[in-house]
Amino acid sequence: xxxxxxxxxxxxxxxxxxxxxxxxxxxxxxxxxxxxxxxxxxxxxxxxxxxxxxxxxxxxxxxxxxxxxxxxxxxxxxxxxxxxxxxxxxxxxxxxxxxxxxxxxxxxxxxxxxxxxxxxxxxxxxxxxxxxxxxxxxxxxxxxxxxxxxxxxxxxxxxxxxxxxxxxxxxxxxxxxxxxxxxxxxxxxxxxxxxxxxxxxxxxxxxxxxxxxxxxxxxxxxxxxxxxxxxxxxxxxxxxxxxxxxxxxxxxxxxxxxxxxxxxxxxxxxxxxxxxxxxxxxxxxxxxxxxxxxxxxxxxxxxxxxxxxxxxxxxxxxxxxxxxxxxxxxxxxxxxxxxxxxxxxxxxxxxxxxxxxxxxxxxxxxxxxxxxxxxxxxxxxxxxxxxxxxxxxxxxxxxxxxxxxxxxxxxxxxxxxxxxxxxxxxxxxxxxxxxxxxxxxxxxxxxxxxxxxxxxxxxxxxxxxxxxxxxxxxxxxxxxxxxxxxxxxxxxxxxxxxxxxxxxxxxxxxxxxxxxxxxxxxxxxxxxxxxxxxxxxxxxxxxxxxxxxxxxxxxxxxxxxxxxxxxxxxxxxxxxxxxxxxxxxxxxxxxxxxxxxxxxxxxxxxxxxxxxxxxxxxxxxxxxxxxxxxxxxxxxxxxxxxxxxxxxxxxxxxxxxxxxxxxxxxxxxxxxxxxxxxxxxx
Length: 682
Known about the structure:
Elements: H1 8-18, E1 28-32, H2 37-49, E2 55-60, H3 63-72, E3 87-92, H4 98-111, E4 117-120, H5 139-164, E5 170-174, H6 196-217, E6 222-226, E7 230-231, H7 234-237, H8 242-248, E8 253-254, H9 256-268, H10 272-275, E9 277-281, H11 297-312, E10 336-338, E11 351-353, E12 360-363, E13 367-369, E14 375-377, H12 383-393, E15 403-407, H13 412-424, E16 430-435, H14 438-447, E17 462-467, H15 473-486, E18 492-495, H16 514-539, E19 545-549, H17 571-580, E20 589-592, H18 600-603, H19 608-614, H20 622-634, E21 644-647, H21 663-680
């Protein structure tokens, strides 16, 4: 029990060390479980330490408590610049429900430009056995592990942005560092064998395992699993005999304010060894270890956690209550629509999605089997597909440094895919962003993880930007020549450049319609000229892929006598016709449909954010789209590794009936002629 006895010396050292924290920019702190106890005390310390110059968001269930806390925080005066004053708020959240967690992380990801600190202190007061939520997750496990994991998983890119700007950052889970136990990889959800004590110790190992994986993926950030010791919080005192018990063991207890000093200590420590990596920290500021986080454990727990939290957030499991009335039925099947309306009984009150088959739906009455032939995919996102893609992509561990070219990589899906490659390889990648916005590119590159100084030059992080206007074939050609001369190989080419225009045909000075140049001709030219470098990487046994993110599955018949569409032009027709022209057998070529993604193309227009908020139920983030777009390029299944593929945003193989005999050759010849002649014009 002596491990829980506080050290007043440690508290004093922590207080002195923390006092040196004086940020030059207003920090943003998110406190999950911040309406009482240690979470409240840590939020209060940040507000006090910065003299009110902080943005603090408290998350929990008790709004009255949150408002009381916020009212007592110090506030800046009117002389402070507009982006620097006190900004305190509360968001109501039930952390036992992954759907609720996902709702809040989506909201925060849209509203915040950065996060400096994520502090998770959620607790669940219960002496009973296993008790499942309506999502099929044990309530204690949801609160103490899954919600914390999901919160960090979804918001860590915003912490990386703050770190990339040189600001102090930290992510902490206040729980049970140093108390880990061996885990059963065949029973990670603990449905076979469950006890409160076993759960507590195993969840400590889960936290250490995922924090180790987080640190691998985000090497510029620090992740701190901490043991607070015995603290006089409402969790201790708000039950029968609690105050009496606390007084009896007062010599072992610290106040929430003292615990806060200890929990902030290593996150704010100026010693470089504490600034990055995964740490298990005692309530005395000491580094602990967990011998049960052995080889393979971080990856297994990570994949399990991704699957559980992504699935639960959409009720993708047996037993979940999804609909409460017949009128809600359309929302129960978020990933499909029907060619013909299914026959549904008016008495239906509940729909359950079973994990056994996505086409089996259990109603309040008998089992109803929905015919897959009567269903077609819609633009609605599939969280199950995102979870499957994420788990599959996590297996990509290249033995040599990959080279990735991202045309349109300065925002949206292109940025997210480049960021994922950098994170997945822990900075061991050569990434070239191509586009028009150099400032955006430099911001993105600054946030990428980097290898340490001891790594050989040909294996170290290498990030750069090349400016190019994809509407100009001449510029495209100049950049291609430069890349062909400088690069020994290319592993991945990703094309996401877009052109926002609602008008009709609008030609460049090279005589090509601007939308056609952006969405098709420039992509074709890049691939045509640089594909030999992709073959070099493939010949060396390395993973490769060429992807055009556009409109797979939406092809239409074409007129071979009007391939440049000068005789008959409409925005819808040209969009559908360019799509099919990507269909030719090339080395690992993937034409992909991303679905509806919250990118600047959506939001950076009049009313864009309002539109996005109205359609949030059917939209995914660029990071989620990136997981889907990488999925089949990195898939270990041989059928995906070569050939031409049309891939839906659910990872399904699509087809195009309009690519008939003679069409690929005709379009290829036309494309070569147009792009070459345009690039040769003076």
